Amino acid sequence: VQLVESGGGMVQPGGSLRLSCEASGFTFRDFAMSWYRQAPGKERQLVACIGSTSGPTKATKYLETLKGRFTISRDNSAVFLQMNSLHTEDTALYFCARSWTCSQTPMDWGQGTQVTVSS
Question: What is the pLDDT of residue 73?
Answer without folding.
Answer: 95
